[in-house]
C-alpha cells in the first residue's frame, strides 16, 4: 500500500483494518497485538520493552526486539502514510493522520448527541446515537479483552456504549416514542440491576405509556436491591421521579412539540431580513409561497422559518417534500404520509387530509411544488379554505395562484452573506481555509459571478480542496454559459453555468455516476447506487466515486445506520437531462425497477422474520423509490415486475404508511394475467383496500376474483383474499363463517409448517371466540399462537399473539392481560406497526378503565383517541369511545357520559349505557358525529385527569 489512501481501523469488535478496496492483511496474533497496543495508546509513545511484554508476555525469546522491528515494518507497509507508525525513543507511536478509528468516531457521535440533547434537539441526538451504535460489531477489542494493556480501554468503551444506549432511550422518551424505549431499557436494567440511570429512564418511559404501577415497581425493585447490596437508598433523581409519578405530575405526561422538521446539517447563513419578513407574512395570512429559481435556497429558508415559528402552533410544524413525486401526480398521499395519517373509511385521501387538519393548529411546509403545481395548488386551496388553524408555507418556482396567497420571491444572497456561506462551505471541504486580503477579492468575484445563488456558491466552495479561490474565479470567468445576465432569467443561467462547470470538472466515471443517480426519486444507499447505476464496477469503486461527489457538493449524504445519498432537485433535473442525452435513461429505469422489485420482495420476507425492525426502517427509507418503480413498471407495461412489487409491499405499506399501494393493486387487476403466481396476493391487497375503506361489497367482489387460489407461503399477512371474506363475515355478525375459515386455515398452516401464517390464523380463532362472548374457548388457540410466535422471533407475530391471549384473559385475569397488552404494544411500536400498536393500546386502556387507576386510564384512552385519529380507523375509534363512556360512568362523570352516549346512538353505534330508545335518531353525517364525539371525549378525559375525582368513583 502506498500514498495516503484512506484507511479505516475498527476496534469495536474484532480488530480490522481496511482501505477503499477492502480488508487489509495485518498478519497473525503478534502483529495484531502490536497494532492494538499502539491504538490503545492513542498516539502516545509506547516504550519498546512494554511492546515486547505485550506481544510475548513475561518470557520473550531472544531477538524479540529484532522481531518487533520486523512487525513494525510490516505494519508500516499495511498502514502507509495514512497512519504513520514512527520511531520515537524509547519506542514507537502510531498517528491516525489520514485514517479513521471507529472508536473515535463513536465517541464523537456520542459527544455530538449529548450536545444536541442539551440544546433540546432530541431528533438530532437520536440520529447521532443510532449512527454511533451502528458502528459496533461485537465487544470492544474482542480478541484482546483479557490482555492487561486492553482492560481499561475495553471497560471505558463498554461503559460509553452502555451510556449511549441509555442516552438513546432518553431521546426516544423526549420525542414521545416511549414505547420504543421500554424494551431496550428493560434489557439494560436486567443486565445492570444496580445502575440507577436506566432504572430511572424505565420508570419515566413506563409512566409515559400509561403504566404507572409498572413504573413504580421499577423504583421498588431498585430500592430493595440497593438496600440489600449496598445499604443505601436510591439517589435524588430516582426519588424525585418516584414522587412525581405518585402525584401524577402533569409535566411527566407532556409531549414534545410535534412535527418532522429535519435538523440542519450546517448552520443557516444570513437572510435574517428575509426570515423576519416571511415570519411576519405567516402571521398575516394562511398561505405564503417562496418562489425563485432552483438553487436559490427556497427549501432551506422555508425550513429555517418553520423551525423558528413552530412554537406558535400547538400541533407542530410538518414538512411535506414533493420532489420525489412523478410529474403531475396527486399529492394527497405524500401529504398524509408526512403528517403520519392514513386514509379514512369512506373518504378520499385528500378528504382525509382535510378532515384531519380541520380542527388542528399547525404549520404545513409544502416543498417543491412546481412539477405537481395543479394538484398541489388544488389541495392547498382546500386547506386554506376549510382548515382555519393551518398555515401553509410553500416553495415553488412559480406561484400556486391560490386565493389569499402571499408570494415572496427569494432574492440572491447579498455579498456579505454570500461570502459567509462560501467560507462556511469551503471550511467544510478544507478546515484550514481562511478568508484573508489575498483571497477576499476572488471570493467576492465568485459570489458575484454566481449571482449570490446558494447552490452555485456551495458547488464552487467545494472546490477549495483542490483549487484556490483565484483559480475558481478565473475558470468561472471563462465558462461559456456565464454571460453576465444574458437572456430573460440571468440568475438561472448563472446556476446552470455553475452546475455545468462542476459537472465538467468531474472525471468521466464520476460524471456517469452523478447522472445515473438522477434515477432515484428519494435517494439511495451504497448498495442501491452500485446495483442500479454501475453494477459492472466494484462496490468499493462506487463508494470512492460517491465520496468524491459528496466532497464536491454534487451529492448529499445523510448519515444513519446506512448512509443514504441523494441529489438536490436542481441537480437531479440536470442529471436527468444528461442521462437522456447520453441515451442511458431506459437501461437505468429498467435496473431501477428490477432492483426495487427485488428489494420489496426481500423486505416482504424480512418483515416476517426476526429482523423486522431493521427491514421496516430500510424499506420505509426507500418508499419514494418503490412508488417510482411501480409507476415506471406500469407505464412500460412491465406487468410481471409491477405485480410482484404490489404483492410484496402490503406488509410494509398498509401497516406503516397508508393505503396508497392498494390503488396500485386495483390498477393492475384488469390488465395482468390472472394465471400469474402473484395474482392472488394482488387480489388480496386490493380487497383489503376496499375493506379498509369500508366498501364491503367491493371487498367481497374483489376477493372472489382469486377463486379458490391461495397465495403462497410468505405472502403479506393482510393480502389473503379468503381472510378478507372471513373478516367481512365477522364484522357483519357471522362469527361461525369466520371461525370455520380461520380454523381450517390454521390446520393448513400447521400442516405446511408456515409459522407466520399459523400465528395469524390462531390469533383470529381466539378473536372469533372473544367476539362470540366465549373467550375461554379461544384460550388454547391463543396459547398456541404465542408459542409459535416466540419461535419465529418476529415482533409483529409476538405482538399479535400476546394481544390474542390478553383478549381472552382480560375478564378472568385482568392483571395478566395488562402485561400482555402492554408488551404487545411495545413490540408493535418498535417495528412501526401502527395498527397492532393501536389495538393493544386500546385494550390495555380499556382494561385499566375497569380495573386500574382512573387517571392513568384517562391518559391512556386519550392517547388512543389521538392514535386512531391519525391511523384513520373509524371502527376502532367508535369502540374506543365506548370504553371512554364506561370510564366516565365509573368516575361519576354522568353528564359527560350521557353526552357521549348520545353521540354513540346518533351514529347508530352500541352504547355501554344501554340500547337506544324507540325514537333515537341516527344522524346521516356519521363522520361529523365522530369528530364531535372525539372532541368531547378528549375534553372529558382532561377533566378526569385534572381532578379531583369524586370519592365514590371505585
What attributes characterize this protein structure?
alpha/beta; single chain; about 950 residues; DNA-binding; 4-stranded mixed β-sheet; DNA binding; Arc Repressor Mutant, subunit A; disordered C terminus; 5-stranded parallel β-sheet; BTAD; Rossmann fold; nSTAND1; WH-like_DNA-bd_sf
Explain this structure to me?
The chain is an alpha/beta fold. Helix content is 61%, strand content 6%. The chain has 6 domains: 175 residues, Orthogonal Bundle (Arc Repressor Mutant, subunit A), CATH 1.10.10.10; 138 residues, Rossmann fold, CATH 3.40.50; 84 residues; 78 residues, Orthogonal Bundle (Arc Repressor Mutant, subunit A); 99 residues; 103 residues, no CATH class. α36 runs antiparallel to α37.
What's the helix and strand layout?
Elements: E1 7-10, E2 16-19, E3 22-23, H1 29-40, E4 46-47, H2 48-56, H3 64-79, E5 85-88, E6 91-94, E7 99-101, H4 102-118, H5 122-133, H6 148-174, H7 178-191, H8 196-208, H9 212-230, H10 236-246, H11 272-284, E8 287-291, H12 298-309, E9 317-321, H13 332-339, H14 349-358, E10 362-367, H15 373-386, E11 390-396, E12 405-409, H16 415-429, H17 437-449, H18 454-461, H19 469-478, H20 490-504, H21 508-516, E13 524-525, H22 526-533, H23 539-551, E14 556-558, E15 564-566, H24 569-581, H25 585-606, H26 612-621, H27 623-635, H28 639-648, H29 650-656, H30 660-668, H31 679-692, H32 696-703, H33 721-731, H34 735-752, H35 755-771, H36 779-792, H37 795-809, H38 814-830, H39 834-851, H40 854-871, H41 874-890, H42 894-906, H43 926-946
Parallel strand pairs: 1-7, 8-11, 8-12, 9-10, 10-11
Antiparallel strand pairs: 1-2, 2-3, 4-6, 5-6, 13-15, 14-15
Amino acid at each position: 500500500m502506498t500514498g495516503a489512501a484512506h484507511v479505516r481501523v475498527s476496534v469495536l469488535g474484532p480488530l480490522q483494518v481496511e482501505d477503499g478496496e477492502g480488508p487489509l492483511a495485518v498478519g497473525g496474533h503478534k502483529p495484531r497485538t502490536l497494532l492494538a497496543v499502539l491504538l490503545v495508546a492513542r498516539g502516545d509513545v509506547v516504550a519498546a520493552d512494554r511492546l515486547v511484554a505485550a506481544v510475548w508476555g513475561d518470557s520473550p525469546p531472544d531477538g524479540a526486539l529484532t522481531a518487533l522491528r520486523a512487525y513494525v515494518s510490516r505494519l508500516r507497509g499495511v498502514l502507509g502514510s495514512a497512519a504513520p507508525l514512527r520511531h520515537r525513543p524509547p519506542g514507537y507511536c502510531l498517528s491516525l493522520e489520514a485514517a479513521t478509528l471507529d472508536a473515535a468516531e463513536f465517541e464523537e457521535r456520542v459527544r455530538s448527541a449529548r450536545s444536541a440533547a442539551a440544546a433540546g434537539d432530541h431528533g438530532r441526538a437520536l440520529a447521532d446515537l443510532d449512527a454511533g451504535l451502528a458502528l459496533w460489531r461485537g465487544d470492544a477489542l474482542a480478541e484482546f479483552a483479557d490482555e492487561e494493556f486492553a482492560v481499561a480501554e475495553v471497560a471505558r468503551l463498554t461503559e460509553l456504549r452502555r451510556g449511549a444506549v441509555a442516552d438513546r432511550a432518553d431521546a426516544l422518551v423526549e420525542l414521545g416514542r416511549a414505547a420504543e424505549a421500554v424494551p431496550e431499557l428493560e434489557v439494560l436494567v436486567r443486565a445492570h440491576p444496580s445502575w440507577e440511570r436506566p432504572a430511572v429512564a424505565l420508570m419515566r418511559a413506563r409512566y409515559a405509556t400509561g403504566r404507572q404501577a409498572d413504573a413504580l415497581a421499577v423504583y421498588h425493585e431498585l430500592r430493595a436491591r440497593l438496600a440489600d447490596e449496598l445499604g443505601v437508598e436510591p439517589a435524588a433523581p430516582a426519588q424525585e421521579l418516584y414522587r412525581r409519578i405518585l402525584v401524577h405530575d402533569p409535566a411527566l405526561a407532556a409531549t414534545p412539540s410535534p412535527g418532522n422538521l429535519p435538523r440542519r446539517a450546517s448552520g443557516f447563513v444570513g437572510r435574517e431580513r428575509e426570515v423576519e419578513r416571511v415570519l411576519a407574512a405567516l402571521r398575516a395570512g394562511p398561505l405564503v409561497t417562496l418562489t425563485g429559481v432552483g438553487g436559490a435556497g427556497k427549501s432551506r429558508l422555508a425550513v429555517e422559518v418553520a423551525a423558528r415559528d413552530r412554537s406558535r402552533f400547538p400541533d407542530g410544524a410538518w414538512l411535506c417534500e414533493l420532489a420525489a413525486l412523478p410529474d403531475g401526480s396527486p399529492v394527497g398521499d405524500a401529504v398524509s404520509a408526512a403528517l403520519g395519517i392514513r386514509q379514512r373509511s369512506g373518504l378520499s385521501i385528500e378528504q382525509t387530509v382535510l378532515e384531519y387538519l380541520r380542527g388542528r393548529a399547525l404549520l404545513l411546509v409544502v416543498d417543491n411544488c412546481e412539477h405537481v403545481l395543479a394538484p398541489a395548488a388544488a389541495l392547498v386551496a382546500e386547506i386554506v379554505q376549510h382548515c382555519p388553524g393551518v398555515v401553509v408555507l410553500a416553495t415553488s418556482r412559480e406561484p400556486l395562484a391560490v386565493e389569499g396567497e402571499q408570494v415572496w420571491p427569494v432574492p440572491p444572497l447579498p455579498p456579505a452573506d454570500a461570502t459567509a456561506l462560501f467560507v462556511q462551505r469551503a471550511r467544510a471541504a478544507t478546515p484550514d481555509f481562511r478568508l484573508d486580503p489575498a483571497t477576499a477579492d476572488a471570493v467576492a468575484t465568485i459570489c458575484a459571478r454566481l449571482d449570490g445563488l446558494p447552490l452555485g456558491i456551495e458547488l464552487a466552495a467545494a472546490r477549495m480542496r483542490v483549487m484556490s479561490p483565484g483559480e475558481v474565479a478565473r475558470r468561472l470567468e471563462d465558462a461559456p454559459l456565464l454571460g453576465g445576465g444574458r437572456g430573460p432569467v440571468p440568475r438561472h443561467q448563472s446556476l446552470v453555468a455553475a452546475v455545468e462547470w462542476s459537472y465538467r470538472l468531474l472525471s468521466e466515471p464520476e460524471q456517469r455516476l452523478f447522472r445515473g443517480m438522477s434515477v432515484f426519486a428519494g435517494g439511495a444507499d451504497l448498495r442501491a447506487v452500485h446495483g442500479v447505476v454501475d453494477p459492472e464496477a466494484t462496490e468499493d469503486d462506487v463508494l470512492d466515486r460517491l465520496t468524491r461527489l459528496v466532497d464536491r457538493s454534487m451529492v448529499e449524504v445523510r448519515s444513519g445506520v446506512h448512509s443514504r445519498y441523494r441529489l438536490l432537485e436542481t441537480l437531479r433535473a440536470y442529471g436527468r437531462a444528461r442521462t437522456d442525452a447520453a441515451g442511458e435513461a431506459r437501461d437505468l429505469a429498467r435496473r431501477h425497477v428490477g432492483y426495487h422489485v427485488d428489494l420489496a420482495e426481500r423486505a416482504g420476507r424480512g418483515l416476517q422474520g426476526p429482523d423486522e425492525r431493521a427491514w421496516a426502517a430500510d424499506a420505509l427509507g426507500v418508499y419514494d423509490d418503490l412508488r417510482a418503480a411501480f409507476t415506471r413498471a406500469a407505464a412500460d407495461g412491465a406487468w410481471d415486475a409491477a405485480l410482484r412489487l404490489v404483492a410484496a409491499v402490503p406488509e410494509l405499506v398498509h401497516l406503516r404508511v397508508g393505503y396508497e399501494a392498494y390503488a396500485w393493486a386495483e390498477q393492475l387487476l384488469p390488465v395482468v394475467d390472472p394465471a400469474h403466481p402473484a395474482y392472488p396476493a394482488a387480489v388480496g391487497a386490493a380487497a383489503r383496500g376496499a375493506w379498509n375503506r369500508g366498501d364491503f361489497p367491493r371487498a367481497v367482489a374483489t376477493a372472489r376474483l382469486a377463486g379458490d387460489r391461495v397465495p403462497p407461503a410468505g405472502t403479506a399477512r393482510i393480502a389473503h383474499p379468503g381472510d378478507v371474506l372471513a373478516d367481512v363475515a365477522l364484522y357483519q355478525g357471522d362469527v361461525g363463517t369466520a371461525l370455520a375459515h380461520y380454523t381450517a386455515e390454521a390446520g393448513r398452516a400447521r400442516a405446511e409448517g408456515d409459522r407466520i401464517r399459523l400465528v395469524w390464523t390462531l390469533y383470529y380463532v381466539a378473536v372469533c371466540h372473544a367476539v362470540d362472548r366465549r373467550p375461554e374457548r379461544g384460550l388454547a388457540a391463543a396459547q398456541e399462537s404465542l408459542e409459535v410466535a416466540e419461535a419465529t422471533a418476529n415482533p409483529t407475530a409476538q405482538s399479535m399473539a400476546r394481544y390474542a391471549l390478553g383478549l381472552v384473559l382480560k375478564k378472568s385475569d385482568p392483571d395478566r392481560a395488562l402485561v400482555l397488552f402492554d408488551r404487545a404494544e411495545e413490540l408493535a411500536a418498535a417495528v412501526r406497526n401502527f395498527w397492532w400498536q393501536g389495538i393493544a393500546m386500546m385494550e390495555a386502556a380499556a382494561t385499566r378503565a375497569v380495573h386500574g387507576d382512573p387517571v392513568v386510564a384517562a391518559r391512556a384512552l386519550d392517547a388512543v383517541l389521538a392514535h386512531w385519529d391519525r391511523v384513520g380507523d373509524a371502527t376502532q375509534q367508535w369502540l374506543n369511545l365506548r370504553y371512554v363512556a364506561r370510564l366516565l360512568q365509573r368516575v361519576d362523570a354522568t353528564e359527560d357520559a350521557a353526552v357521549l352516549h348520545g353521540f354513540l346512538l346518533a351514529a347508530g353505534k352500541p352504547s355501554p349505557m344501554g340500547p337506544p330508545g324507540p325514537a333515537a335518531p341516527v344522524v346521516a353525517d356519521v363522520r361529523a358525529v365522530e369528530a364531535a364525539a372525539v372532541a368531547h371525549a378528549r375534553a372529558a378525559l382532561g377533566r378526569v385527569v385534572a381532578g379531583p375525582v369524586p370519592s365514590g368513583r371505585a
